[in-house]
Backbone:
């Protein structure tokens, strides 16, 4: 017992002696790290690697890559640039995760478990033993109010500091340098889309944004502005960035309401078209990677799409918008392009050579265990090579040098020519189930043999709509039963595509008034080599054609109120009358009635 | 001028104007295209008046029509149509009305006979009077039944001649016995009714007994016809492999192979059982409604007391018959399933699954109404306040069971609701939507209703049995044990270790524990309250009016329920007249929606209630005082013949 | 607790307690029952119950309350007297006027809320765990669903080392393929889960793995959405048919792993 | 004057109200109208491909194969064997019977051979209530063949029944 106390006192003294720097070096006890290892092995190792080297089972298919704990570099910190994160920083990420990445929050872990895991994680990197690598957490001031002046000042700072180079002029992550950005491991990294605050990896609040400016994201091209900007300017910049996004929450919907219009829908008259769509309700739908059929896409570029619709007597028009870091409007694309199996793995990037004409996608193929994983269905390596070779030689030469690129300097684009173009598709069932069986739909992924779907597809190279009929991923054929028109435009990182078709259809679905029609979306980003089945897609949602004659709520409301009032008055009248009439029946109330008075 | 003359004048005027109009019209038509100039020209040329081309054409046409009519072969119509409503709806409504009256006519003698028998054994006069009161309803209803039966037969022959002919082919040998039995029925019925008090009690009881035998036999014959349409054959293990095979009563082309198999077909007996029980319940409720009607009309305390009692007995009969009805229904459904999986799946899972949610609402209402009436009935007896506290708990139990029974397996839900639930079943409520929970609910409902009866029985009485405390406690323990068993099986069924098939089989111990508890409690209750001391007088006639409306509500719900179940039984066959043998090729061959069916059922029920209102009114006439002249002068003029 | 929203349920229970304590009269009880049950059905469940079912329940409740209120003369008088007094006696005139205005306003608001409620896509019924086939053919190997079991489960007792190997293999398969939807922690909340309807299965849930046989889970893994019966809305589900990508052994391994990870045992084989 | 509603009026109101209430309940539940399957006509000049298409319609509709009994590739009910790939299996199921003969036997005499593990519960397709004609059965055989193999049945093929 006394020995124990003595030891404790000695330890306290020791701690006093090496303070203050050593006070921060808290690596936990052996037991704590051992306990942390148990939790880590169960919940973390599969991505971050059992050895903490960021290479777990999931790593090949995950982007951004899981943190490599052996490097000691952390993106989201409150400590100055280049420093190690505080325990609280680590805890914050473990608790809430990083949105729109494969790092989830772990609300099921207790505080102690998290602390133990932190100790264990720290043990992977020797940096944590070095007191010099620790920095004081920065001071995050209270955010300034978002006044117009503050935002304007922020805009100036935004321009001065060259933020637009990566994040784009209006913040859609579409700056000229955006396609070239790589992190320390050489992987392409997307500049944050500042208009979609909910996708900020470090968090959506003003404090989070300030923190990111001030500390930078270690290991990425995002620098710290702690030295170059005054606190106040950073705060203005925060307000400006904050003003770029509309909400912390994407408010994903399940239904587009197609607005009725008396006017003609003319795709060529841009202004009239914009006016038409201005009043139509807008719905944002989530997009996810296509990960069930070959050509799987584990890291789609587009995470959501906004859609609107208007219709008139004869026609219906859909408008969709989504953000894309570059307009790839030079390559080829169509929904039935084949995608070799290995192209699913983002891991190929890691070993890729920048100068290679395959761009980010070197010829190194899939890791060996993956080849075995697909067993009999594996594409033979020879085929891979030849397939890939042919593709790159032909297309990158033709498409890129042939057509040039309006939006970017040749220098940036040269390394990764637009082999595949951006594209978008709306998907509808080829026929609607009879009204009394609303539950029958085609398979959301391009239909099936019995229940086909129709695709309204626009390859943004050409900007015209093609129609396809899908009977499953392997059976997509062009059809020409209905004519779909489309106009497209790319502006500041945002694609806008407007489709139009006659409401009545010969072979496909017709849009009757007040009808719920299933709809699904697909988006291809050529830059991300998305083509064929490798794409971002949505599950089934609905488009509802609102009634052409809208009814106001006033009359039904008045009617309901008056009916209730009339009943009330009647009751009051009857009760009062009866009460006046006398005493005998009152005690019996309305129950006995008048026909059978109590004996 | 007198009124008669005016009427006569109008009649003559109308007749004349009709004649004039017709003649005028004929004249105009004839002269429509006449061309006098040309006719004259032709006359001049030939010197004789020739027929115009038009006249010639008309004459030719007539001749051709006549020739065609002469040559036209006789074609037997398969179907004929009724304008506006359609043949199916016509036959549907007529059959339903016939069936409702028939059910009443068959049911009332059953309990009239039993009540008369009780009266005979106990020697209490009031039972005899009650039985007579019930029987009074019979004679008019009997004619109604016959009328609608004739209507139905005509409708079938006219609208579905081919199919009716086919049924004749199969069942012609049964028609003569049917008619004979019908004749006997009339004989027994009228001798039973008019012979009241004229025969000796034993003879009269014998007449009543025969009336029931004959009535039941008639129903059994008619049931054979309709069950044949659903299951034209029987199931028998022909090849000896332990699995019953289907033995069709008719050949592939529909020719009769065995009248015996066609008659005693697979669903015949289940339907017979189900119908007898349902008829008694229905008849009881209608008789109770009649009593309610009379009670509300009654002008003196004696009548009020009598009809109060009659309503009570009618309701008692209805509910007692109703308690085993769900089990009879399960038996019928299981037999239909065993006969044909297609029919079974169609019934429980397919088109008709929502019908059973509707049925749950109806049956829930029936239970609630019946219990409510009993509780109100406690008001007849002095000093029952301490029983009122139980009502709350019984009500909670009934409402809970009702709610469980009405919980749909897959609820109608919006997308956001489905998203929130992660599917169309709610994580908690989905348990309630399953058969197991519903079985539990029905059993508890039955137990609760039985409890209400028991409570009602002991109002105003105090047991003088020496062991009364012990016996009463035993009753409580039995009741609690049965309820606990039912709930245990209901809840335990969902335990991980129980698979779905076993869970469904738990229904059997549930039913047995309820039945056993009811029998055991009754057995204890009889000695317990024999010669019990009366602490409060039962004051018949001391019922609030609302209780009588509750009786009418119960009768209405019963009628509606019967109509609804008629739809499912008949609709099950889908596009077949005779399942698998005679296809319905008329435009009405499809299965209508539930909404449409409920409209037809509602219309039928309203017609039935309109007619039964007439029956009630006619029956109430016999209780009225004989007509007497208003004044002496009038009496003189009319003579004295009316006094009797 | 048992899916109940205690924030709503406990106050309701508390109010009921107060009413018992203060010996509230029948009318108060009736009003409390109606409003309280309405609140309970609407807000009392963590997963809200569908409007249609709530309406059925409230209808039954209303009917039962009417029955109760009129089940005896005394009780009816107790219920009706306060209302009659409110209507007749002059001193309550203000309250009566308020009520006369409030009720129509409430009705009007109800209509308004009904008419302006955001539109929703039409719903459909979906069976979460639809009945499996009796027989399952995966990679030319036919299993009897009723008796099939995970072939590696027995290693747990016989050969812990081999068991560990299969588990580790299952872990690899899971994190190479499954976690995008079913989540790193198997909560059905992977990074793509928000875009899917129906949401991916939550393996933490006691209502999922433990109530299913491992052969059922094998069926779901092997045949995926295309293998669902119509009641399971195969057109909406994004579950791939993993037999196209994985060997039978790999599918059993991942089956083993998801049970082990969540600490559940597969439901015992049924007696047939 | 005492204000009261006469008894008959009350009674009529009660009857009408209750009936209307039940009718209303019937209107708010999901409505479904079931129509009998349309007749499928087979003409003499139909090719095997036409037969496959008609066979599929028959199997879904009049034949009721897929409504409650069989499934294809384990989608749908599964009380009876999966028909996925049956065209391939049929040739080897019973020794001595060709695939057409085996399929025809299964349709005309389902009890003659029952796939192990299943109960004998199928009704002969040529008998009521299904009552397919011989040509219709040829079409169904053609469709069954097309599941997993190439159909060869024509309207002239002898089925042996």
Residues:
């Amino acid at each position: 017992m006394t020995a124990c106390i003595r030891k404790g006192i000695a330890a306290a003294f020791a701690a006093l002696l090496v303070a203050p720097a050593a006070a921060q070096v808290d690596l936990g006890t052996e037991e704590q790290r051992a306990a942390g290892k148990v939790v880590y092995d169960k919940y973390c190792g599969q991505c971050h690697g059992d050895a903490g080297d960021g290479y777990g089972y999931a790593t090949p298919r995950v982007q951004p890559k899981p943190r490599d704990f052996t490097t000691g570099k952390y993106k989201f910190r409150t400590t100055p640039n280049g420093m190690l994160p505080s325990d609280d920083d680590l805890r914050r990420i473990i608790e809430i995760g990083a949105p729109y990445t494969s790092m989830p929050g772990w609300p099921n872990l207790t505080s102690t478990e998290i602390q133990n895991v932190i100790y264990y994680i720290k043990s992977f990197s020797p940096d944590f033993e070095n007191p010099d690598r620790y920095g004081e957490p920065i001071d995050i001031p209270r955010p300034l109010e978002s006044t117009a002046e503050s935002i304007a000042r922020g805009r100036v700072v935004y321009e001065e500091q060259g933020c637009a180079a990566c994040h784009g002029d209006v913040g859609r992550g579409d700056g000229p340098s955006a396609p070239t950005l790589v992190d320390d491991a050489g992987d392409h990294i997307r500049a944050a889309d500042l208009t979609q605050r909910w996708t900020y990896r470090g968090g959506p609040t003003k404090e989070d944004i300030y923190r990111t400016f001030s500390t930078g994201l270690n290991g990425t091209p995002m620098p710290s502005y702690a030295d170059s900007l005054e606190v106040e300017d950073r705060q203005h910049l925060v307000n400006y960035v904050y003003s770029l996004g509309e909400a912390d929450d994407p408010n994903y919907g399940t239904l587009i309401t197609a607005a009725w219009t008396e006017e003609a829908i003319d795709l060529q008259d841009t202004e009239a078209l914009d006016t038409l769509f201005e009043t139509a309700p807008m719905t944002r739908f989530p997009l996810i990677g296509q990960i069930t059929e070959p050509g799987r896409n584990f890291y789609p570029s587009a995470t959501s799409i906004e859609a609107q619709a208007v219709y008139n007597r004869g026609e219906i028009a859909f408008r969709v918008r989504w953000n894309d870091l570059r307009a790839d409007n030079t390559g080829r694309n169509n929904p039935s392009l084949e995608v070799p199996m290995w192209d699913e793995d983002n891991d190929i990037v890691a070993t890729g050579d920048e100068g290679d004409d395959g761009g980010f996608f070197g010829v190194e193929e899939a890791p060996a265990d993956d080849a075995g994983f697909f067993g009999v269905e594996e594409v033979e390596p020879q085929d891979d090579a030849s397939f890939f070779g042919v593709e790159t030689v032909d297309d990158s030469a033709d498409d890129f040098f042939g057509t040039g690129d309006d939006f970017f300097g040749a220098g940036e684009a040269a390394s990764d020519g637009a082999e595949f173009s951006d594209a978008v598709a709306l998907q509808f069932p080829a026929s609607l189930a009879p009204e009394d069986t609303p539950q029958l739909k085609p398979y959301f992924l391009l239909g099936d043999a019995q229940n086909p779907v129709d695709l309204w597809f626009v390859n943004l190279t050409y900007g015209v709509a093609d129609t396809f009929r899908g009977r499953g991923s392997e059976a997509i054929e062009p059809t020409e039963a209905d004519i779909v028109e489309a106009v497209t435009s790319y502006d500041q990182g945002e694609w806008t595509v407007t489709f139009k078709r006659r409401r009545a259809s010969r072979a496909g679905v017709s849009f009757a008034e007040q009808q719920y029609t299933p709809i699904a979306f697909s988006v291809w980003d050529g830059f991300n080599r998305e083509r064929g089945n490798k794409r971002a897609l949505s599950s089934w949602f609905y488009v509802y054609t609102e009634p052409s004659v809208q009814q106001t709520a006033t009359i039904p409301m008045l009617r309901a109120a008056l009916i209730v009032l009339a009943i009330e008055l009647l009751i009051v009248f009857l009760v009062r009358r009866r009460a006046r009439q006398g005493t005998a029946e009152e005690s019996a109330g309305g129950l006995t009635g008048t026909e059978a008075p109590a004996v | 001028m007198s009124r008669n003359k005016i009427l006569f004048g109008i009649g003559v005027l109308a007749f004349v104007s009709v004649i004039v109009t017709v003649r005028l019209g004929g004249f105009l038509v004839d002269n429509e295209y006449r061309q006098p100039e040309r006719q004259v020209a032709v006359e001049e040329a030939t010197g004789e008046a020739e027929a115009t081309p038009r006249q010639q054409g008309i004459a030719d046409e007539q001749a051709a029509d006549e020739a065609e009519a002469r040559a036209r072969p006789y074609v037997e119509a398969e179907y004929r149509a009724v304008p506006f409503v359609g043949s199916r709806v016509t036959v549907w409504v007529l059959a339903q009305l016939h069936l409702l009256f028939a059910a009443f006519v068959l049911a009332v003698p059953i309990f009239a006979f039993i009540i008369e028998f009780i009266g005979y054994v106990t020697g209490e006069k009031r039972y005899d009077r009650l039985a007579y009161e019930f029987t009074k309803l019979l004679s008019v209803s009997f004619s109604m039944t016959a009328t609608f039966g004739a209507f139905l037969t005509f409708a079938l022959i006219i609208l579905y001649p081919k199919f009716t002919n086919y049924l004749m082919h199969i069942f012609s040998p049964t028609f003569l016995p049917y008619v004979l039995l019908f004749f006997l029925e009339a004989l027994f019925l009228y001798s039973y009714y008019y012979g009241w008090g004229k025969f000796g009690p034993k003879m009269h009881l014998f007449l009543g007994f025969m009336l029931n035998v004959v009535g039941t036999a008639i129903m059994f014959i008619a049931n054979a016809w309709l069950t044949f349409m659903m299951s034209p054959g029987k199931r028998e293990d022909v090849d000896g492999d332990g699995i019953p095979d289907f033995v069709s009563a008719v050949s592939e082309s529909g020719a009769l192979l065995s009248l015996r198999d066609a008659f005693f077909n697979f669903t015949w007996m289940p339907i017979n059982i189900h119908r007898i029980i349902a008829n008694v319940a229905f008849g009881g409720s209608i008789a109770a409604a009649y009593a309610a009607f009379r009670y509300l009309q009654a002008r003196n305390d004696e009548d009020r007391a009598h009809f109060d009692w009659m309503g009570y007995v009618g309701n008692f009969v209805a509910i007692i018959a109703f308690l085993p009805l769900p089990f009879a229904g399960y038996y019928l459904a299981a037999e239909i399933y065993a006969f044909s999986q297609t029919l079974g799946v169609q019934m429980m899972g397919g088109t008709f699954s929502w019908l059973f949610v509707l049925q749950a609402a109806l049956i829930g209402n029936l239970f609630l109404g019946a219990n409510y009436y009993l509780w109100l009935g406690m008001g007849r007896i002095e000093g029952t306040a301490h029983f009122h506290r139980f009502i709350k708990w019984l009500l909670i139990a009934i409402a809970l069971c009702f709610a469980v029974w009405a919980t749909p397996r897959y609820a109608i839900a919006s997308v956001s609701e489905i998203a929130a639930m992660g599917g169309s079943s709610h994580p908690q409520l989905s348990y309630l939507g399953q058969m197991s929970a519903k079985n539990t609910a029905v059993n508890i409902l039955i137990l609760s209703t039985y409890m209400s009866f028991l409570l009602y029985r002991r109002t105003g009485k105090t047991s003088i049995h020496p062991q009364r405390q012990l016996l009463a406690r035993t009753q409580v323990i039995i009741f609690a044990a049965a309820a606990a068993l039912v709930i245990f099986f209901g809840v335990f069924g969902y335990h991980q270790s129980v698979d779905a098939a076993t869970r469904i089989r738990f229904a059997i111990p549930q039913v047995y524990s309820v039945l056993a508890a009811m029998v055991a409690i009754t057995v204890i209750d009889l000695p317990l309250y024999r010669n019990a001391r009366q602490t409060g007088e039962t004051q018949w006639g001391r019922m609030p009016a609302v209780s009588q409306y509750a009786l009418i509500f119960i009768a209405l719900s019963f009628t509606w329920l019967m109509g609804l179940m008629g739809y499912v039984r008949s609709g099950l066959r889908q596009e077949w007249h005779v399942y698998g043998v005679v296809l319905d090729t008329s435009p009405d061959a499809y299965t209508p929606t539930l909404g449409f069916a409920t409209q037809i059922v509602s219309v039928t029920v309203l017609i039935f209630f309109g007619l039964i209102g007439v029956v009630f009114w006619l029956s109430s006439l016999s209780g009225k005082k004989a007509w007497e002249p208003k004044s002496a002068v009038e009496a003189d003029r009319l003579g004295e013949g009316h006094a009797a | 607790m048992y899916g109940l929203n205690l924030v709503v349920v406990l106050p309701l229970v508390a109010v009921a307690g107060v009413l018992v304590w203060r010996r509230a009269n029948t009318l108060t009880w009736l009003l409390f029952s109606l409003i309280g049950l309405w609140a309970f059905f609407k807000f009392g469940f963590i997963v809200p119950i569908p409007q249609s079912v709530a309406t059925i329940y409230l209808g039954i409740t209303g009917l039962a309350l009417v029955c109760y209120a009129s089940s005896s003369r005394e009780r009816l008088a107790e219920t009706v007297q306060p209302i009659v007094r409110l209507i007749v006696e002059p001193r309550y005139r203000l309250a009566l006027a308020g009520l006369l205005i409030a009720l129509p306003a409430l009705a009007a608001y109800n209509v308004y809320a009904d008419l302006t409620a955001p539109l929703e896509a039409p719903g459909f019924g979906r069976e979460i765990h639809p009945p499996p086939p009796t027989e399952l053919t995966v990679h030319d190997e036919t299993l009897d669903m009723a008796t099939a079991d995970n072939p590696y489960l027995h290693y747990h007792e016989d050969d812990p080392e081999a068991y560990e190997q299969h588990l580790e293999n299952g872990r690899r398969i899971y994190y190479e393929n499954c976690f995008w939807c079913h989540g790193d922690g198997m909560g059905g909340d992977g990074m793509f889960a928000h875009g899917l309807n129906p949401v991916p299965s939550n393996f933490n849930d006691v209502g999922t793995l433990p109530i299913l046989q491992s052969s059922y889970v094998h069926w779901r893994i092997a045949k995926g959405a295309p293998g669902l019966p119509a009641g399971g809305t195969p057109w909406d589900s994004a579950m791939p048919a993993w037999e196209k990508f994985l060997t039978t052994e790999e599918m059993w391994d991942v089956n083993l792993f998801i049970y082990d990870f969540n600490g559940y045992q597969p439901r015992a084989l049924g007696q047939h | 004057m005492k204000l009261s509603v006469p008894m008959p009026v009350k009674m009529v109101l009660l009857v009408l109200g209750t009936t209307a209430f039940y009718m209303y309940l019937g209107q708010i539940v999901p409505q479904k109208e079931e129509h009998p399957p349309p007749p499928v006509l087979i003409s003499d000049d139909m090719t095997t491909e036409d037969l496959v298409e008609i066979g599929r319609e028959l199997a879904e509709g009049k034949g009721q194969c897929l409504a409650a009994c069989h499934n294809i590739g384990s989608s749908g009910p599964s009380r009876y064997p999966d028909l996925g790939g049956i065209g391939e299996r049929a040739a080897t199921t019973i020794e001595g019977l060709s695939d057409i003969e085996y399929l025809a036997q299964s349709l005309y005499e389902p009890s003659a051979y029952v796939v192990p593990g299943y109960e004998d519960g199928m009704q002969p397709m040529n008998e009521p209530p299904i009552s397919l004609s011989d040509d219709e059965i040829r079409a169904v055989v053609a469709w069954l063949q097309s599941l997993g193999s190439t159909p060869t049945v024509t309207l002239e093929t002898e089925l042996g029944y």
In short: The longest helix of chain D spans residues 7-28.
